[in-house]
Amino acid sequence: MPHKRAKRSVREKARAERKLDLPPSESSFNPHDIPKSMARVLNAEMVQGAWKEKKRDMEDRDRIGGGKKRKIASASSKTEIKIKPGESLRHFKQRVEDDMRPLIRSAMKSTTSLSKQKLKQSQKDVEQLTNERGKSKGVPEHDDSDSEDASSHRRQGKRKDRSPSPGFLRVSSSAPKRLNDVVQAPPELRPAPRLRRLAEKSQHQKAQGRRGSAIEDEEGDGGVITLQQKRMMELEREKAINRYRALKEAKLKVQQKKMDILI
Question: Does the pLDDT at position 64 exceed 80?
């Protein structure tokens, strides 16, 4: 098998047949077998030559004229970017981004310029339309202002017709308001007529209730407890206490008997 290592005897025989200090063959020099930094050093002349040629082509195009358009056309006509031998995926991605960056910038600039042009054109169209409407109508604009004045007068009339609230004083809003104004007196809160009538009615009812209770007290049918009633209540209280104590003693005796039986 070609991928297997040969026997020692075969290797020694091949080494004896070969000469010493021979240069490496093409098959032994594979770019994938060496690090990328070493490959960059070995291929430095080729890379620099390619870059110089590319720079010379760009200068020639700029010298001829129409460099930007030709650059964009040449970029679009480029061959597909492929990964190089011995190049990592990270470096390939960076190279693709570097190649595509000028195209992205030019595309962004073109889109922004187009959007600005459209915005300016739309603003001009709006201004032209407003000017044409103003020239064509002319007088109706004054009619609109007159109608607005009439509506404002109506609103002011409605506001004046409203009755002022009786509980608060009116203060003109045209007076200047300052930051360090000092209050001369506390506000006077006056009750409304309806609330005043309700308060007077409740006070009248309370006064009548007091008079009726005074008459009942004089007649003896009021809620006042006499000495005889107080004495009777005390006697009933003592009877209830004695009855409760007797029930408690009987219950304790029954419990004591049960405990004695269990013992």
Answer: no
Under 8 Å between Cβ of 58 and 71 = yes
Higher-pLDDT residue of 76 and 133 is 133
Q: In this structure, what DSSP letter does residue 77 have?
A: T
Q: Of 175, 183, 202, whose CA–CA distance to 191 is shortest?
A: 202
Query: What's the sign of the alpha-carbon dihedral 80, 84, 90, 92?
Result: negative
Sorted by sequence, the CB contacts under 8 Å of residue 47 that are 6+ apart come out as 40
Most confident of 164-168, 185-189, 226-230, 244-248: 244-248
User: What would the two tokens of residue 165 be?
Assistant: 């609230």
Angle at 40 between CA 35 and CA 41, to 5 degrees: 100
| Alpha carbons 169 and 13: distance in angstroms, whole number | 125
Say if CB 87 and CB 35 are below 8 A apart: no
- The 10 Å Cβ neighbour count of residue 72 is 15
